[in-house]
Amino acid sequence: MTESNCCNSGKNEEIRESVRDAYAKIATRGGSCCGASCGPTAVQSPEELAKGIGYSENDLASLPVGANMGLSCGNPTAIASLKPGEVVLDLGSGGGFDVFIAGRKVGPSGSAIGVDMTPEMLAKARRNIVSYRERTGFDNVEFRLGEIEHLPVADASVDVIISNCVINLSPDKPQVWREIARALKPGGRVSVSDIALLKPLPKAAQASVEALVGCVAGAALVDETKEMVRAAGLSDARFDLKSSYIDSMADWSDPVFRELADKFPHGTKPSDFVTSLSVTARKPLL
Q1: Rg of the Cα trace of the chain?
Q2: Where do the structural domains in the chain lie, given as residue ranges?
């Protein structure tokens, strides 16, 4: 390993530890540091947030208590148009919110797998499996400890990969996209909701740890994301920008954006720099 690679590796692990520690606190205390809140505000609850970004009453009614932690920045399960019998993998599954929704959509002949690097999140999600089974009658979800840069699944074993406001937290995003391509079956598809940058953040914002854990400072530029998806070998890629969602986050007095407010240039707003980004793509058939 070269000195440069060694230093990068050390920095990457430092970032992972920062994120892991922050989400461990979220898992044990409740609340969020991504999506719309670092702890539900008096203005917006996790349920109201989820409805605002497209989750249905039916989706939310069937969830185990505590699975919705307000960590979303989109609705990848809806974008993915999940079908009965499919194998779904959720990157950064947290308390299991999207996994439990995906499990209902793919039914007893399918399966939904969540991967998370935070043991406290994994424990929370696994505790909710009992409630999920009682509500649905399905035994089709599981949660695995692992990093999204090194997914604990076999090559070409997954029909659909989803992720909700997580890839932006990775210190090695190109590797995440390569792993997505590795894990997908030929013809398989990926549906990601994420935070991305329209232009570089001011340096003061980049330096904010709360912004990193809040899915902002660690986000890639939209054009960089497009290049990572292409370089991973995925095709039929589509990128939908939803900057209005960022304006809503600011309107909800999101703590992340309160923290960043004085770090943006005068006369600008968060959505001038940050957008909610939906990415869909496919792994080419052999």
Answers
A1: 18
A2: 11-282
Residue with the two structure tokens 């980004």: 277
- pLDDT tens per residue, range 141-200: 999 999 999 999 999 999 999 998 889 888 899 999 999 999 999 999 999 988 888 988
Grouping H, G, I as helix, E, B as strand and the rest as coil, residue 227 is: helix
Contact 82, 100 (CB under 8 A): no
Instruction: Name which of 117, 160, 141 is nearest 27 in CA terms.
Output: 117
Superfamily of domain 11-282: Vaccinia Virus protein VP39 (3.40.50.150)
pTM: 0.77
Buried b (16+ CB within 10 A) or exposed e, 25-44: ebbeeebbbbbbbbebbeeb
Q: How many CA atoms lie within 13 A of 93 on its CB side?
A: 30
